[in-house]
Write a structure and sequence with these properties.
264 residues, mainly alpha, 10 helices, 82% helix
Length: 264
Amino acid sequence: MLIFSGALVGFAIGLTGVGGGSLMTPILLLFNYPVAVAIGTDLLYAAITKASGMYFHHRHGHVDWKTMSLLALGSIPVSLIINIFIIDEALTDNADFSAFLSSFLGVMLILTALVMVFNRLIQRRLETDENETQKKYYKYLRNHRSKLVFLLGIILGICVTLSSVGAGAFGAAILFMLFPSWPTKNVVGTDIAHAVPLTAVAGLGYLLNGLVDFSLLLALVVGSLPGIYVGTRLGSVLPEKLLRTVLIFVLLWLGIYFSLAQLH
Protein backbone atom coordinates (compact mmCIF):
# COMPACT_ATOMS: atom_id res chain seq x y z
CA MET A 1 0.00 0.00 0.00
CA LEU A 2 2.88 2.39 0.75
CA ILE A 3 4.53 1.64 -2.60
CA PHE A 4 1.16 2.22 -4.29
CA SER A 5 0.81 5.52 -2.39
CA GLY A 6 4.26 6.57 -3.60
CA ALA A 7 3.21 5.70 -7.15
CA LEU A 8 -0.03 7.68 -6.76
CA VAL A 9 1.77 10.79 -5.52
CA GLY A 10 4.46 10.40 -8.18
CA PHE A 11 1.70 10.16 -10.77
CA ALA A 12 0.19 13.43 -9.49
CA ILE A 13 3.61 15.11 -9.60
CA GLY A 14 4.15 13.92 -13.17
CA LEU A 15 0.71 15.12 -14.27
CA THR A 16 0.64 18.56 -12.65
CA GLY A 17 4.18 19.30 -11.45
CA VAL A 18 2.93 19.71 -7.86
CA GLY A 19 1.55 17.53 -5.11
CA GLY A 20 4.62 16.01 -3.42
CA GLY A 21 4.48 17.33 0.14
CA SER A 22 0.88 18.42 -0.29
CA LEU A 23 -0.30 14.86 -0.82
CA MET A 24 2.34 12.58 0.70
CA THR A 25 2.24 13.77 4.32
CA PRO A 26 -1.60 13.62 4.52
CA ILE A 27 -1.51 10.09 3.06
CA LEU A 28 1.05 9.00 5.66
CA LEU A 29 -1.12 10.44 8.42
CA LEU A 30 -4.05 8.44 7.08
CA PHE A 31 -1.78 5.38 7.50
CA ASN A 32 -1.52 6.41 11.19
CA TYR A 33 2.17 7.31 11.15
CA PRO A 34 3.14 9.83 13.86
CA VAL A 35 2.90 13.38 12.50
CA ALA A 36 6.57 14.21 13.07
CA VAL A 37 7.73 10.95 11.42
CA ALA A 38 5.42 11.53 8.44
CA ILE A 39 6.77 15.06 7.94
CA GLY A 40 10.43 14.07 8.42
CA THR A 41 10.22 11.11 6.04
CA ASP A 42 8.32 13.15 3.46
CA LEU A 43 10.97 15.91 3.58
CA LEU A 44 13.74 13.47 2.63
CA TYR A 45 11.44 11.88 0.04
CA ALA A 46 10.92 15.33 -1.51
CA ALA A 47 14.67 16.07 -1.55
CA ILE A 48 15.37 12.76 -3.34
CA THR A 49 12.57 12.98 -5.91
CA LYS A 50 13.11 16.68 -6.70
CA ALA A 51 16.90 16.32 -7.19
CA SER A 52 16.52 14.93 -10.71
CA GLY A 53 14.08 17.74 -11.54
CA MET A 54 16.60 20.33 -10.37
CA TYR A 55 19.30 18.77 -12.57
CA PHE A 56 16.96 18.73 -15.58
CA HIS A 57 15.95 22.39 -15.17
CA HIS A 58 19.58 23.45 -14.55
CA ARG A 59 20.74 21.76 -17.77
CA HIS A 60 18.04 23.56 -19.73
CA GLY A 61 18.80 26.95 -18.17
CA HIS A 62 15.49 27.25 -16.32
CA VAL A 63 16.99 28.11 -12.89
CA ASP A 64 17.67 31.68 -11.77
CA TRP A 65 20.44 30.92 -9.27
CA LYS A 66 20.51 34.45 -7.87
CA THR A 67 16.84 34.20 -6.86
CA MET A 68 17.32 30.64 -5.64
CA SER A 69 20.25 31.75 -3.45
CA LEU A 70 18.25 34.62 -2.00
CA LEU A 71 15.40 32.25 -1.16
CA ALA A 72 17.83 29.81 0.48
CA LEU A 73 19.44 32.65 2.45
CA GLY A 74 16.09 33.16 4.13
CA SER A 75 14.80 29.59 4.35
CA ILE A 76 17.73 27.41 5.37
CA PRO A 77 18.81 29.34 8.53
CA VAL A 78 15.17 29.35 9.68
CA SER A 79 14.90 25.61 9.06
CA LEU A 80 18.11 24.99 11.03
CA ILE A 81 16.83 27.08 13.95
CA ILE A 82 13.52 25.16 14.04
CA ASN A 83 15.33 21.81 13.89
CA ILE A 84 17.80 22.75 16.64
CA PHE A 85 15.40 24.36 19.10
CA ILE A 86 11.97 22.87 18.37
CA ILE A 87 12.10 19.46 16.63
CA ASP A 88 12.93 16.59 18.98
CA GLU A 89 12.40 12.81 19.10
CA ALA A 90 10.15 13.29 22.12
CA LEU A 91 7.65 14.99 19.82
CA THR A 92 6.37 11.60 18.66
CA ASP A 93 4.78 11.17 22.10
CA ASN A 94 3.74 14.81 22.54
CA ALA A 95 0.03 14.90 21.74
CA ASP A 96 -0.21 18.69 21.87
CA PHE A 97 2.64 19.27 19.44
CA SER A 98 1.39 16.53 17.11
CA ALA A 99 -2.00 18.25 17.10
CA PHE A 100 -0.28 21.56 16.29
CA LEU A 101 1.68 20.01 13.40
CA SER A 102 -1.47 18.36 12.06
CA SER A 103 -3.46 21.61 12.21
CA PHE A 104 -0.57 23.56 10.69
CA LEU A 105 -0.45 21.03 7.86
CA GLY A 106 -4.19 21.51 7.28
CA VAL A 107 -3.84 25.29 7.12
CA MET A 108 -0.93 24.99 4.66
CA LEU A 109 -2.94 22.66 2.40
CA ILE A 110 -5.83 25.14 2.31
CA LEU A 111 -3.46 28.06 1.63
CA THR A 112 -1.77 26.12 -1.17
CA ALA A 113 -5.12 25.41 -2.83
CA LEU A 114 -6.24 29.05 -2.50
CA VAL A 115 -2.94 30.38 -3.83
CA MET A 116 -3.24 28.06 -6.84
CA VAL A 117 -6.70 29.52 -7.53
CA PHE A 118 -5.82 33.21 -7.05
CA ASN A 119 -2.53 32.85 -8.90
CA ARG A 120 -4.42 32.04 -12.10
CA LEU A 121 -6.71 35.03 -11.59
CA ILE A 122 -3.76 37.35 -11.00
CA GLN A 123 -1.94 36.00 -14.06
CA ARG A 124 -4.98 36.69 -16.25
CA ARG A 125 -5.23 40.21 -14.81
CA LEU A 126 -1.57 40.91 -15.55
CA GLU A 127 -1.94 39.60 -19.09
CA THR A 128 -4.57 42.25 -19.89
CA ASP A 129 -3.73 45.71 -21.21
CA GLU A 130 -1.45 47.61 -18.87
CA ASN A 131 -3.20 50.10 -16.57
CA GLU A 132 -2.18 52.37 -13.70
CA THR A 133 -2.60 49.63 -11.08
CA GLN A 134 -0.27 47.34 -13.01
CA LYS A 135 2.29 50.12 -13.47
CA LYS A 136 2.33 50.74 -9.71
CA TYR A 137 2.60 46.98 -9.07
CA TYR A 138 5.56 46.57 -11.43
CA LYS A 139 7.26 49.65 -9.96
CA TYR A 140 6.81 48.27 -6.43
CA LEU A 141 8.30 44.94 -7.53
CA ARG A 142 11.32 46.65 -9.09
CA ASN A 143 12.02 48.53 -5.85
CA HIS A 144 11.34 45.76 -3.34
CA ARG A 145 11.66 42.43 -5.16
CA SER A 146 14.87 41.27 -3.42
CA LYS A 147 13.37 41.93 0.03
CA LEU A 148 10.16 40.11 -0.94
CA VAL A 149 12.10 37.09 -2.25
CA PHE A 150 14.12 36.93 0.99
CA LEU A 151 10.91 37.20 3.03
CA LEU A 152 9.36 34.42 0.93
CA GLY A 153 12.39 32.28 1.75
CA ILE A 154 11.84 32.81 5.49
CA ILE A 155 8.14 31.94 5.17
CA LEU A 156 8.92 28.79 3.15
CA GLY A 157 11.57 27.77 5.69
CA ILE A 158 8.96 27.86 8.46
CA CYS A 159 6.16 26.24 6.48
CA VAL A 160 8.20 23.46 4.88
CA THR A 161 10.04 22.51 8.08
CA LEU A 162 6.85 22.33 10.14
CA SER A 163 4.55 20.74 7.56
CA SER A 164 6.63 19.58 4.54
CA VAL A 165 4.17 21.65 2.47
CA GLY A 166 5.06 24.84 0.60
CA ALA A 167 8.15 24.02 -1.44
CA GLY A 168 6.05 23.15 -4.51
CA ALA A 169 2.77 24.76 -5.54
CA PHE A 170 2.75 27.40 -2.80
CA GLY A 171 6.30 28.63 -3.47
CA ALA A 172 5.87 28.55 -7.24
CA ALA A 173 2.60 30.49 -7.07
CA ILE A 174 4.21 33.30 -5.05
CA LEU A 175 7.18 33.39 -7.45
CA PHE A 176 4.71 33.85 -10.31
CA MET A 177 3.44 36.98 -8.56
CA LEU A 178 6.95 38.30 -7.87
CA PHE A 179 8.20 37.58 -11.41
CA PRO A 180 5.14 38.00 -13.67
CA SER A 181 7.29 38.26 -16.82
CA TRP A 182 9.07 34.94 -16.26
CA PRO A 183 8.08 31.90 -18.36
CA THR A 184 6.47 29.11 -16.35
CA LYS A 185 9.51 26.84 -16.83
CA ASN A 186 11.79 29.39 -15.13
CA VAL A 187 9.45 29.76 -12.15
CA VAL A 188 9.12 25.99 -11.77
CA GLY A 189 12.86 25.40 -12.27
CA THR A 190 13.86 28.01 -9.69
CA ASP A 191 11.27 26.76 -7.21
CA ILE A 192 12.46 23.15 -7.53
CA ALA A 193 16.12 24.20 -7.26
CA HIS A 194 15.33 25.92 -3.96
CA ALA A 195 13.15 23.06 -2.71
CA VAL A 196 15.98 20.49 -2.91
CA PRO A 197 18.39 22.05 -0.36
CA LEU A 198 15.54 23.25 1.86
CA THR A 199 13.84 19.84 2.10
CA ALA A 200 17.24 18.13 2.47
CA VAL A 201 18.29 20.37 5.37
CA ALA A 202 14.89 20.14 7.05
CA GLY A 203 14.72 16.37 6.50
CA LEU A 204 18.24 15.81 7.87
CA GLY A 205 17.18 17.72 10.98
CA TYR A 206 14.31 15.28 11.50
CA LEU A 207 16.68 12.39 10.71
CA LEU A 208 19.17 13.46 13.39
CA ASN A 209 16.27 13.61 15.84
CA GLY A 210 15.22 10.05 15.00
CA LEU A 211 12.08 11.09 13.14
CA VAL A 212 12.61 9.36 9.76
CA ASP A 213 11.38 5.86 8.88
CA PHE A 214 13.84 4.39 6.34
CA SER A 215 11.71 1.42 5.26
CA LEU A 216 8.86 3.83 4.62
CA LEU A 217 11.16 6.18 2.70
CA LEU A 218 12.39 3.32 0.49
CA ALA A 219 8.84 2.16 -0.28
CA LEU A 220 7.77 5.68 -1.26
CA VAL A 221 10.77 6.24 -3.53
CA VAL A 222 10.35 2.83 -5.21
CA GLY A 223 6.70 3.57 -5.92
CA SER A 224 7.12 7.18 -7.01
CA LEU A 225 9.71 6.68 -9.77
CA PRO A 226 7.41 4.76 -12.18
CA GLY A 227 4.48 6.95 -11.05
CA ILE A 228 6.30 10.15 -12.06
CA TYR A 229 7.25 8.61 -15.42
CA VAL A 230 3.69 7.52 -16.26
CA GLY A 231 2.25 10.84 -15.03
CA THR A 232 4.70 12.84 -17.15
CA ARG A 233 3.77 10.85 -20.26
CA LEU A 234 0.02 11.26 -19.68
CA GLY A 235 0.37 14.90 -18.66
CA SER A 236 1.03 15.87 -22.27
CA VAL A 237 -2.31 14.48 -23.46
CA LEU A 238 -4.67 15.15 -20.53
CA PRO A 239 -6.19 18.63 -19.98
CA GLU A 240 -4.05 20.56 -17.46
CA LYS A 241 -6.97 22.74 -16.32
CA LEU A 242 -9.02 19.69 -15.29
CA LEU A 243 -6.05 18.10 -13.52
CA ARG A 244 -5.22 21.24 -11.54
CA THR A 245 -8.90 21.71 -10.61
CA VAL A 246 -9.08 18.16 -9.23
CA LEU A 247 -5.83 18.72 -7.31
CA ILE A 248 -7.14 21.98 -5.83
CA PHE A 249 -10.32 20.28 -4.56
CA VAL A 250 -8.30 17.38 -3.11
CA LEU A 251 -5.97 19.80 -1.29
CA LEU A 252 -8.94 21.77 0.07
CA TRP A 253 -10.64 18.63 1.33
CA LEU A 254 -7.46 17.34 3.00
CA GLY A 255 -6.75 20.78 4.45
CA ILE A 256 -10.21 21.10 5.99
CA TYR A 257 -10.05 17.52 7.28
CA PHE A 258 -6.73 17.97 9.11
CA SER A 259 -7.59 21.47 10.32
CA LEU A 260 -10.85 20.32 11.90
CA ALA A 261 -9.71 16.85 13.00
CA GLN A 262 -8.16 18.24 16.18
CA LEU A 263 -11.46 19.80 17.23
CA HIS A 264 -13.11 16.39 17.76
